[in-house]
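Hi support team,

I submitted a single chain yesterday and got back a structure, but I'm not sure I'm reading the token output correctly. Could someone confirm the output below corresponds to the sequence I sent? I've pasted both exactly as they appear in my results page.

Thanks,
R.
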Amino acid sequence: MEVLDSVCEKLNLNELERIPHVKELCGKIGVKPAHVGLGLLGLVSIFCLLEFGTKWFGFLIGFLYPAYQSFKAIESQETKEDDKMWLTYWIVFGFLTVFDGLINFLFSFIPFFGVLKIAFNVWLFHPKTQGARIIYEKFLKGLLKKYESKIDTHLNKIGEKIEESKPLLNDVAAALKKEGVNQATAHVLH
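Hi R., thanks for writing in. Yes, this is the structure output for that exact sequence:
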């Protein structure tokens, strides 16, 4: 049991104790939340090593968990450091998502590439490694700073075009609504 507890502590799975529903459910079955987390992590690891469901596990780990932690960071009043950490994660995650097709094309021949992507996502957001901060500081920050004025100019132009097209979009929406009502009426009458 000490070995399990030590592994759970190193993986920071003791944090599961803080989730009331998890703690309550684990109390009913008589198992520590960290041990349940370790079991699920083991099961997911086996699936990933067999390349079964890696894409979905990657989604759960790389998106859902960080999204929930971002929500918690926004709602906490304790510190702004966690807000900065999660904003940095989302900037890096966004860049990686944009280039995901290219990354998959270039590296999918590597055995267990899906598992490596999951591990990389964990490295990006894990509190001990904060890989997203490293990538942001060493690569993305300089790139964004270099092109910041050009990006702002283009975003402003897009905003202006959207404003200019609002009357047309309103007309299209009204026409579609009217046509939908006409079709619904015709359907009811037949």
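A quick pointer for reading it: The CA atoms of residues 103 and 130 lie 21 Å apart. Let us know if anything else looks off.

Best,
Support desk
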